[in-house]
From TrEMBL:
Gene3D superfamilies associated with the record: 2.170.120.30, YbbR-like domain
Name this protein carries in UniProt: YbbR-like domain-containing protein
Keyword field: Membrane, Transmembrane, Transmembrane helix
InterPro entries, sorted: c-di-AMP_regulator, YbbR
Organism this protein belongs to: Clostridium moutaii
Length: 415
């Protein structure tokens, strides 16, 4: 009996739901009563170019929306969409001023079977600021690392400044127009166009600012890394008439990079001359490096430490010596042969008597570097690398012609 009552109650509830649904359908489709509804519609700002004429600019680029109260038959009210309406705010019809401006909204299009209850009270608030322009420097920021054994040198820009415009506060915050480029795995010079970003002094991106030009052409030279010794240059004598027995640079070798035609002739980096009469009893002295034009130091700020030993030796006089050296050919590709127009060079060196008197040709390197040369006859620099304590007075010849040819089968068989 109890189970029968439960089934009856469920049946009654189902019948009530069906009856209510039928009644709703009747009212909505037959009676179709008048009803109201709120709908959010975007507003289009027209004639914004008048702001620039008044030296004003909109603060932010937010989309403006208006809440419309629409009225009509229920079937019509609930079937319309925001795209069925067109709302405009015309900036050319009103005098604009810096700060907050209330601009009326005009209904340009709406469905015929719908009325707008709040049609007479449609406004938007637009914030304006003084339009400002200024010129800012362009800065290139390189990210990533080139291929191992290569180094990205200082970028070269086609132009140095860009112009920005926008709201006064935003423009005042911008310090640089920054071009960011990733040089990861690069092994050749890079020529590309990079977009510019307005940034403040802390590297933060400043929004709502226009930048002209929007992009800039840059060239990033990528050079090979070469390790060369540091040559310590000294002059003068100690106050007691003696000189230190040993001066060592720390580090004694340094990595450099640059255009291959430049660094191939660099056999060492000299320090600025250090005057022994001014260092007293110091055991460590900082000295600047003399960096040739077109050469970039890698992981070094251009300063090395000189470690000076405590032992001393008596000073002696200066003398010169003439030597004839055989010119060697270095870094020649195994598949080539090379012939020099002159196989020897005559040099004159100067230094202290003790060094010059014990000097022989075997302690001086004299060579032509062919690592970057191709097949054919070409001019090459004769590189003379002297031991520490000597300086080159004269050299003849300084250049020789070298004839590089592909090896023949006879040359290979002879080898």
């Amino acid at each position: 009996m109890e189970e029968k009552n439960k089934k009856s109650q469920i049946l009654i509830k189902v019948c009530c739901v069906i009856a209510a649904f039928i009644l709703w359908l009747y009212i909505f489709n037959v009676e179709n009563p008048i009803t109201e509804r709120k709908i959010v519609v975007p507003v289009t700002i027209v004639n914004k170019d008048v702001l620039a004429q008044s030296k004003l600019v909109q603060v932010g680029n937010d989309q403006f929306n208006i809440s419309l109260v629409i009225k009509g038959n229920a079937s019509d009210v609930y079937s319309v969409k925001s795209s069925d309406f067109q709302l405009n705010s015309d900036l050319s019809s009103y005098v604009m001023k810096r700060g907050e401006n209330n601009i009326p909204v005009t209904v340009k299009k709406s469905p015929d079977n719908i009325s707008i209850a709040n049609n007479e009270n449609l406004w938007i608030k637009i914030q304006l600021d003084e339009l400002k322009k200024k010129s800012i420097p362009i800065k290139v920021t390189l990210t990533g690392k080139p291929k191992e054994g290569y180094y990205a040198l200082d970028p070269v820009l086609k132009m140095e400044k860009a112009e920005i415009s926008g709201a006064q506060d935003s423009v005042n915050a911008v310090k640089y127009a920054v071009a960011v480029y990733d040089v990861k795995y690069a092994q050749n010079d890079i020529n590309t166009t990079v977009s510019l970003q307005p940034q403040d002094a802390s590297g933060n991106l400043i929004k709502n600012v226009e930048i002209n030009p929007a992009a800039v052409k840059i060239t990033v030279p990528v050079g090979k890394i070469k390790t060369v010794p540091v040559n310590v240059k000294i002059q003068g004598n100690s106050a007691s008439g003696e000189v230190t027995s040993s001066i060592t640079a720390v580090p004694d070798k340094i990595d450099i990079s640059g255009n291959e035609s430049v660094i191939k002739n660099i056999s060492g980096i000299d320090t600025e001359p250090i005057d022994l009469s001014k260092i007293g009893d110091a055991s460590n002295v900082q000295v600047k490096l003399v960096v040739p034009k077109g050469v970039k130091l890698i992981n070094n700020n251009g300063i090395v430490q000189l470690k000076i030993s405590s032992g001393t030796v008596k000073t002696d006089g200066e003398s010169q010596k003439q030597l004839n050296l055989n010119i060697q050919i270095r870094n020649l590709n195994d598949s080539y042969t090379a012939k020099l127009s002159s196989s020897s060079a005559s040099i004159v060196v100067s230094g202290s008597d003790s060094i010059v008197n014990n000097l022989n040709a075997d302690s001086i390197a004299c060579f032509v570097d062919t690592s970057s040369m191709s097949e054919g006859v070409q001019s090459a620099n004769v590189v003379v690398s002297l031991p520490q304590g000597l300086s080159l007075v004269s050299q003849s010849p300084q250049n020789v012609n070298i004839d590089i040819r592909q090896k023949t089968a006879e040359d290979q068989n002879g080898n």
